Amino acid sequence: TVNSNMVEGAFIGVEHLIKKGHKNIAFISGESSPVQSFERIKGYQKALSIYGIDLKDEYIVKSSQKIPDIRQTVRNFLPSHKEVSAIFCLSDFVAMAAMKSIWDLGLKIPDDIAVMGYDNIYLAEYYQPCLSSIDSQNKKIGEMAARMMINLIEGKQSEVEHILLSPSLIV
Question: Full-prediction pTM beyond 0.70?
Fold first, then answer.
């Protein structure tokens, strides 16, 4: 199997936000994959812990993956948490929906609030302002997994490998 280290990816993203001066960082989660949510929340918590920032349970906000639900979640959350200066999102998809709600609330990105996505989908670079994201190396994962499968089929490889790739920050 080939995967991306989601704990490390979330840590890198949240660490970047912290180094930019943010201390009140929310996490907008989703229901698409419990494993993704769990791993990325672990990375979020790890970064806060290492940098001595108290974890506030109310900053971990769950939403469905439906755009109207994500937007409503953000519209409900931010007015009652004005101290939040950054949002780390489960995915770029969640981040883009959150950004729309932030604009609807009259806030400016990144002046009023920073947003970090995850997955580095191709649409992220076309958003204005461009969405900062974690590149989970999906293309490389696909290529490596395909190569491993071909090697197994052709008998060039007898055992299944487990590879964990390091993600990178895209700003």
Answer: yes
